[in-house]
Write a structure and sequence with these properties.
Blueprint (H helix, E strand, L loop, with lengths): L4 H18 L39 H12 L8 E6 L5 E5 L12 H11 L4 E9 L12 E5 L21 H10 L4 E8 L15 H4 L28 H15 L3 E7 L7 E10 H11 L2 H14 L6 H14 L23 H10 L9 H6 L26 E7 L2 E9 L5 E8 L5 H15 L8 H4 L29
Parallel strand pairs: 4-5, 5-6
Antiparallel strand pairs: 1-2, 1-10, 3-4, 3-7, 8-9, 9-10
Helix pairs in contact: 2-12, 3-7, 3-8, 3-9, 4-6, 7-8, 8-9
């Protein structure tokens, strides 16, 4: 690799960031068999080259990319992963290892629900309301009556009263203050209504420990702090999030000077009058949060809301159908897709690796500016989200600040799908999906593969100087920590 390579990569990243912020990122026409990755042809017509990146930078050669990744992807710990790599600007396929065979994606699937939400309602805000029925013959100033807290599918609704913070979340304390400002000083009953979502609250393929380990709350349209016991708390989620939210709201009411009688859950009276409302950040901001933090509650909520908007049941069945339909309507490949949820927690989910890359490519195509949020929401290696503590070792550090990717982790899946700028300044999109049992060594192996691609100057003149030695010449597997020394899978959250 020449000394100019790091400069080209850093310059490309700086230009890429500027283009994203300016909303000017676009790519040129696709070529060859990769055309199906781009969606509808109308999005490609007249496209400019990728804003801020050098369109004259050499495109990596497939044979060189294959040689570059042979060692990292051949690591036995990855158990023969599927892999797909393309050049974002030209659409040229650089590596294809079983990309059309559907496999379990884990949380890389969140890019699919992100696409559906951003396509459907990127600027909407999720509303949580309070409605009120006075006692018979009374009014708001009469003691008694019933307050209903009606969930709108916002799991970021918070009991926190701490000032500031980004994004500004909807607060129970603001709802309570509005109730008091409406002249209501007491309520005989406070009832929580999470009925916007229907059907089972856990999906097929979810492990029993997901709720108790704190990975996800049972899906409900009424949640506070995603079913956690307190803002920013860790550990088990509430098995009854709507009831927990109603109890937290009753406490906020009492703090605001409204006396409360009984607390329960149930459907709101359609004739009740709205007396308070709070709103989430825009959906595009929630999507960023979902991708960066791999937020399972947000993913499932957004999927149900897309289903509801499309006239489908706001259930697992409706959400999975809605997400698949949106992808298909966008011209993205959905053959073989079979989903049990939209967060990626279920081991029953199946999707082609090439579909994940197609989603990423759709985010840089002209004509779909709302999908830019997928790129800005991806965790950044060594800096943010689920990649914040990775890419710190000598064999992965080159990827820090360059690789932006969605992680995926289940007990039988480890995956990584995202983008990076190679040593020559080309924007590459990739998906690596391993069927291996999740462990620190599995994540590290995926990171080594992405880092190798980051350092790729895989053109004819340079490929012979950058090829990674084959697996046989690397340290034997025995030099890596044995499985017994790794934390048990149950102690690590799915991502």
């Amino acid at each position: 690799m020449t000394s100019a390579a790091p400069v080209a990569r850093v310059g490309g990243l700086t230009a890429l960031a500027g283009a994203l912020l300016a909303g000017s990122l676009s790519v040129g026409p696709t070529t060859g068999s990769a055309a199906e990755l781009a969606g509808s042809g109308s999005d490609r017509a007249g496209a400019a080259v990728l804003g801020g990146l050098d369109s004259a930078a050499p495109i990596p050669q497939p044979a060189a990319v294959a040689a570059r990744l042979a060692g990292p992807l051949g690591d036995p710990v990855l158990a023969r992963p599927a892999a797909f790599v393309i050049d974002a600007q030209s659409g040229r396929v650089l590596l294809d290892v079983r990309s059309r065979i559907p496999v379990a994606p884990a949380s890389t699937l969140k890019t699919a629900v992100a696409t559906a939400a951003l396509t459907t309602f990127p600027d909407d805000r999720l509303r949580t309301t309070v409605v009120y029925s006075p006692p018979a013959g009374g009014n708001a100033r009469t003691s008694g009556g019933t307050l209903w807290l009606v969930g709108g599918g916002d799991p970021t609704l918070t009991a926190s009263t701490a000032p500031g913070g980004y994004p500004a979340l909807a607060r129970l304390s603001d709802l309570a203050a509005q109730v008091r400002a409406a002249g209501i000083t007491s309520a005989a009953r406070v009832i929580g209504d999470g009925g916007l979502f229907v059907g089972p609250d856990r999906a097929p393929g979810w492990r029993d420990n997901y709720v108790t380990d704190g990975d996800v709350a049972p899906v409900s349209a009424l949640e506070v702090d995603a079913g956690r016991s307190a803002p920013e708390a860790v550990g088990p989620r509430s098995p009854t999030p709507a009831a927990a939210a109603t109890t937290a709201f009753a406490a906020a009411l009492m703090t605001a000077g409204v006396s409360v009688g009984s607390v329960a859950t149930g459907p709101a009276d359609p004739a009740a009058q709205r007396v308070a409302a709070v709103y989430s950040p825009p959906v595009r901001v929630l999507v960023e949060r979902m991708l960066t933090q791999s937020d399972n509650d947000l993913a499932e909520s957004l999927g149900r809301l897309v289903a509801h908007r499309r006239g489908l049941p706001a259930s697992f069945t409706g959400a999975t159908r809605a997400v698949r339909d949106v992808l298909a309507e966008a011209g993205l490949p959905v053959a073989g897709m079979a989903l049990a949820d939209v967060s990626g927690l279920s081991i029953a989910n199946l999707i082609m690796p090439m579909t994940l890359v197609a989603i990423l490519r759709a985010a840089v195509l002209p004509g779909r500016p709302a999908l830019r949020t997928i790129l800005t929401g991806l965790p950044v290696a060594g800096f943010s989200g689920t990649l914040g503590d990775r890419y710190t070792t000598g064999d992965t550090a080159i990827g820090a600040g360059d690789v932006r990717a969605k992680t995926g982790t289940l007990h039988n899946v480890s995956s990584l799908a995202g983008q990076l700028v190679d040593a020559d300044g080309r924007l590459l999109l990739f998906a690596f999906l391993s069927p291996a049992e999740e462990a620190g060594s599995t994540k590290a192996a995926l990171d080594r593969a992405a880092a190798a691609l980051t350092g790729c100057g895989c053109t004819p003149a340079r490929s012979t100087t950058v090829a990674i030695p084959p697996a046989a010449s690397r340290p034997p597997a025995a030099s890596r920590p044995p499985a017994a020394s790794r934390p048990p899978a149950a102690s690590r959250p799915p991502t």
